[in-house]
Design brief:
Strand order of the largest sheet: 1-4-3-2
Helix content: 10-25%
CATH superfamily: 2,3-Dihydroxybiphenyl 1,2-Dioxygenase, domain 1
Shape: globular
CATH topology: 2,3-Dihydroxybiphenyl 1,2-Dioxygenase, domain 1
Number of strands: 8
Number of domains: 1
Distance between the termini: 34 Å
Number of helices: 2
CATH architecture: Roll
CATH class: Alpha Beta
Largest sheet: 4 strands, mixed
């Protein structure tokens, strides 16, 4: 077996938080809500570049949601374009972020947190 890339990642939460996460990843990050198979639990699939890369799934009865920061997950990173427009959108929405540049990889990075406290990194090529 050879890993060829990231297929998707999944966030599991209450229905109320899922709706907030869907809206945040759509409005702040720029993912698009798209088709989702008729699964036996409530949720959303969010797309980037035509692929369903974020699955949002409702916690089932009896399941506990992981507390933010309780595991080893630090952040997810998206390859993006148009850093100036993204920064303007974040500022207009009042979303706090931290910016960094990695000169050896020629990347500009924006670091932020989603409504559940998960780390999100937006990467922009600089040259």
């Amino acid at each position: 077996m050879a890993v060829e890339g990231l297929n998707h990642y999944n966030l599991r939460a209450s229905r109320e938080l899922l709706v907030r996460l869907r809206d945040w990843y759509r409005d702040v990050v720029g993912l698009e809500e798209g088709d989702r198979p008729p699964l036996n639990h409530y949720g959303f699939w969010l797309y980037g570049g035509g692929s369903p890369i974020l699955h949002l799934s409702e916690s089932r009865a009896g399941e506990s949601n992981p507390a933010p920061g309780s595991g080893t997950f630090d952040h997810v990173s998206f390859t993006c374009s148009d850093a100036p427009a993204t920064r303007a959108r974040l500022e207009a929405l009042g979303v706090p972020y931290r910016a960094a540049e990695v000169p050896t990889t020629r990347q500009r990075q924006l670091f932020l947190r989603d409504p559940a406290g998960n780390g999100v990194e937006l990467n922009f090529p600089t040259g």
